[in-house]
Design a protein that fits this description.
Distance between the termini: 66 Å
Radius of gyration: 20 Å
Number of strands: 4
Mean pLDDT: 88
Oligomer: single chain
Length: 147
């Protein structure tokens, strides 16, 4: 039995298919999403569809080391057409939460274009700071009374 995990293929020994699945599940890794991003993306005017597009772009960047996945590749992971994904990406650019930037790839000794999440996290930190300031303002008088 063979199973595809990224760019490698393992020959499995006969036995429990659930154990083979568990091995692939573990070896494929995980993509971590900041809880604050999941909490605040709606406030940042990012739609659910745009968020799923961001999550898949992030997965490609982290797991596949593909800094600029094609809309066709993203469409294979989403219930959207390449045209809808292109629209989402354009919208994310317009909202200034995603940009393209140049990277130097040491493995191929070349400069490549890739997506950059820095503006997303700058905007997220602004929303977090505003919400945190409101919480502190509200809690301040109550905390002061408990010295």
């Amino acid at each position: 039995m063979f199973s595809k995990m990224g760019r490698t293929v393992k020959k499995y020994r006969q036995g429990n298919i659930a154990a083979a699945f568990g091995t692939d599940l573990w070896m494929a890794g995980a993509v971590n999403m900041p809880s604050l991003l999941l909490k605040y993306y709606k406030l940042m005017n990012i739609s659910d569809s745009e968020m799923m597009t961001l999550i898949q772009i992030f997965r490609y960047c982290c797991q596949e080391k593909e800094l600029h996945p094609s809309t066709e590749a993203l469409a294979e992971c989403l219930s959207a057409t390449p045209q809808e994904i292109e629209k989402n990406i354009k919208s994310l650019f317009e909202k200034k939460v995603l940009v393209e930037t140049l990277y130097y790839d040491v493995s191929i000794d070349a400069v490549i274009t890739g997506y950059d999440f820095e503006p997303l996290f700058e905007k997220l930190s602004d929303y977090w700071a505003c919400c945190r300031a409101k919480e502190i303002e509200k809690a301040g008088p109550k905390l002061e009374g408990h010295r």
